[in-house]
């Protein structure tokens, strides 16, 4: 995927846990990434977690680049097999998603929204994707607003082992209506 935006070009490539592990460690342990729940992770813990994802047929991680430089992380998963098993009734075409924007001391206004739009565009590029599912922490109001901006509709709260989450869904039509991006 490659998307030219007013803020630059966003691309995705497969994450390599060995070569990207140290970089990811600096992102997921940063105070800004508290909702990623890896604050106390050691570099080997991060590498191991992403090695598990790389070996999992139902969970995938991609590194997002901004003008060729690492800038965000995208994960997508099959909620019928990971993360949400037993917590809701998955439909054919459901895809779960997580994303994390790297911490920076030079933030670009609108960058996070450009990232989530690119992530959603990537997910909907697969014709089998009918609906994207997210489960952010109920207290993460910033991400709830961002999700709504790209078409997510909150459904209900669920209790996951690690958090109370707000289960939300976004269909292709809702994404296009919210963003104007035809997918």
UniProtKB/TrEMBL annotation:
InterPro entries: Acyl_CoA_acyltransferase, Acyltransferase_MbtK/IucB-like. GO terms for molecular function: acyltransferase activity. Residues 13-60 form the Acyltransferase MbtK/IucB-like conserved domain. Keywords: Acyltransferase, Transferase. Pathway: Siderophore biosynthesis; mycobactin biosynthesis. Acyltransferase required for the direct transfer of medium- to long-chain fatty acyl moieties from a carrier protein (MbtL) on to the epsilon-amino group of lysine residue in the mycobactin core. This is Lysine N-acyltransferase MbtK. It comes from Streptomyces doudnae. The lineage of its organism: Bacteria, Bacillati, Actinomycetota, Actinomycetes, Kitasatosporales.
């Amino acid at each position: 995927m490659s998307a030219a935006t007013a803020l630059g070009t966003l691309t995705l490539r497969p994450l390599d846990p060995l070569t990207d592990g140290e970089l990811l460690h600096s992102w997921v342990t940063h105070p800004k990434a508290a909702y990623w729940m890896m604050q106390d992770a050691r570099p080997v813990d991060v590498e191991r977690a992403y090695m598990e994802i790389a070996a999992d047929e139902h969970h995938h991680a991609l590194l997002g680049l901004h003008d060729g430089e690492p800038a965000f992380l995208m994960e997508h998963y099959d909620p019928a097999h990971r993360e949400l098993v037993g917590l809701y009734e998955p439909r054919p075409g459901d895809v779960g998603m997580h994303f994390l924007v790297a911490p920076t001391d030079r933030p670009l206004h609108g960058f996070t929204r450009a990232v989530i739009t690119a992530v959603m565009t990537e997910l909907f590029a697969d014709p089998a994707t009918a609906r994207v599912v997210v489960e952010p922490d109920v207290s993460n109001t910033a991400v709830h607003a961002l999700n709504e901006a790209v078409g997510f509709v909150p459904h209900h709260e669920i209790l996951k082992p690690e958090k109370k989450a707000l289960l939300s869904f976004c269909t292709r039509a809702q994404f296009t209506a919210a963003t104007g991006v035809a997918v």
